[in-house]
From TrEMBL:
GO terms for cellular component: cytosol. This is Carboxymethylenebutenolidase homolog. Its main location: cytoplasm. Gene3D superfamilies: alpha/beta hydrolase. The keyword Cytoplasm applies. The gene is Cmbl_1. Residues 30-245 form the Dienelactone hydrolase domain. Belongs to the dienelactone hydrolase family. Signal peptide: none annotated. It is found in: Cytoplasm, Cytosol. It comes from Drymodes brunneopygia. One of its GO terms (molecular function) is hydrolase activity. The keyword Cytoplasm applies. Keywords: Cytoplasm.
Amino acid sequence: MANESRPCPCDIGDRFDYGGRGQEVQVGHIKAYVCKPPASTDKAVIVIHDIFGWQLPNTRYIADMLTTNGYIAICPDFFVGQEAWKPSNDWASFNDWVKTRDAGKTDKEVDVVLKYLKDQCGAKKIGVIGFCWGGAAVQHLMLKNPHLKTGVSVYGVISRMEDKHSLLHPTFFIFGEKDDVIPLEQVTSLEQKLKQNCKVDYEVKIYPGQTHGFVHRKREDINPQDKPYIEEGRRDMINWLNKYL
């Protein structure tokens, strides 16, 4: 569990040796990784990275996976040039570090990315997915951004989005049963509050035996016991996007 010396027990997991099929572009005041499918489409997904930043190969792997499923995928640098967290950093400094990177203050960047997707890529139906820090950002955006159609929050840090449950758009929440960052009582509380306050479609799903980061920070080929759940999480994510985009 998190403690004072290590307030966020995120580890980078299996760092993928993956180069990516897309390209880095400048979108307004931020850089972004973009990948497009071979066939033209008006559907796009914004991918919001975790604390390890927009250049983590694992996150680009997921962006490319979205592209193979027919979506334009874009992973912007939501830290806007500030350094991503490194596994070698001192965890005692984490709380100060994350205070300067607020998942609830991503609106300006999202507006710039939405304009780019509409004007440069012809996107009309746009969703968002996010992991950990990015999952909290998804929940924030689902509460207020009218231009996004749907969202998937993958082990989004609930404690950063407490008491915010009146979602505007259908939202899917993915959690691991053994997540040290997000205890199950927080997930239960989220479900109860969504049931009371949410008027759109939503789903909260807990994956047995899974730890934080399982969907994008574990590799199927070296985590055989986790492989079915990694694949199921990714499949569920795509199915949700397909349903609402």
